[in-house]
Design the sequence.
């Protein structure tokens, strides 16, 4: 019984860690936008209906700090910044696909 309780605690802790990295309204959607490849800030903002510039900036900074995305700054005028998924970020893609599959399978059971 103790081993089972420890496993549940460990699982909970690991799930909490994952949610810290991808939790919130926008992070999973940002990852979704970056799956096809590199995007600039404006492209991301257009793909995320309803996100403010401030919120997108904050989410991108947090994701960069967590090692999920890479931010490439080009020294030119006007400034050019591109975002892409890191290897760690790409490792989250199967999680997004699993979430998509779950939603498709249970769409009719989900209440708005």
Sequence:
């Amino acid at each position: 019984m103790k081993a089972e309780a420890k496993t549940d605690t460990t699982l909970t802790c690991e799930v909490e860690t994952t949610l810290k990295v991808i939790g919130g309204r926008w992070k999973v959607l940002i990852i979704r936008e970056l799956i096809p490849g590199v995007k600039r800030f404006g492209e991301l903002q257009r793909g995320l209906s309803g996100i403010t510039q401030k919120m997108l900036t904050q989410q991108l900074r947090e994701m960069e700090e967590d090692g999920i995305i890479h931010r490439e700054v080009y020294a030119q005028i006007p400034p050019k910044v591109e975002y892409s998924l890191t290897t760690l970020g790409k490792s989250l893609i199967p999680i997004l696909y699993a979430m998509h599959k779950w939603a498709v399978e249970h769409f009719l059971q989900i209440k708005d």
The CA atoms of residues 103 and 111 lie 12 Å apart. The beta strands are 39-40, 69-74, 80-85. The helical segments are 2-22, 27-34, 41-47, 53-65, 87-90, 93-106. Residues 1-5 have pLDDT under 50 and may be disordered.
